[in-house]
Amino acid sequence: MARIQTILVPSDFSKDAEEALEYAIDLAQVFKARVHLLHVHHPIVMAPAYGYGIPAGVMTGIREAAEERIEREREEASKQGIEVTAEVFSGAPSIGIVEVARKLPADLIVMGTRGLTGLRHVVLGSVTERTLRHAPCPVLTLNSKSREEDND
């Protein structure tokens, strides 16, 4: 069995992402691994259908808010006695997750199956599905609904 030293946890701040972080913290404690939190900020500079651009200041504010939130999550997770790092990456979510997984390198990605969009694809969210197909390491997926059913 491969040694798990680095667990990548992508977060869009959804309930599924929170559950994935809790699960990753448990795994990190067992394997004495570190957790790397990641939020992929997808900048949108133009709404082509309407012909309007989004002011740069708005996008800067969104990124800063994401950085503050991921840092709060990092601080909370660190209280569990494990090493936790965090970053905000700019780009398309699944591409960013795969790129950061390669760069770390991550031994495992733990992520929720659905994010904030609320859209239910056939089984998995589109970001999760693309990450599964392209990840350089195993991907463990969770959703809050399945974990609630396990606790019944």
How would you explain this protein's 3D organization?
The chain contains 5 helices and 7 strands, in the order βαβββαβαβαβα. Strands 5-2-1-6-7 form a 5-stranded parallel sheet, with helices on both faces. Strands 3-4 form a two-stranded antiparallel sheet. It is globular, with a radius of gyration of 16 Å. α3 packs parallel to α4. It is an alpha/beta fold and 152 residues long. 44% of the residues lie in helices and 22% in strands.
Topology of this structure?
Elements: E1 6-10, H1 15-31, E2 34-41, E3 46-47, E4 52-53, H2 56-78, E5 84-90, H3 93-103, E6 108-112, H4 126-134, E7 139-142, H5 144-150
Parallel strand pairs: 1-2, 1-6, 2-5, 6-7
Antiparallel strand pairs: 3-4
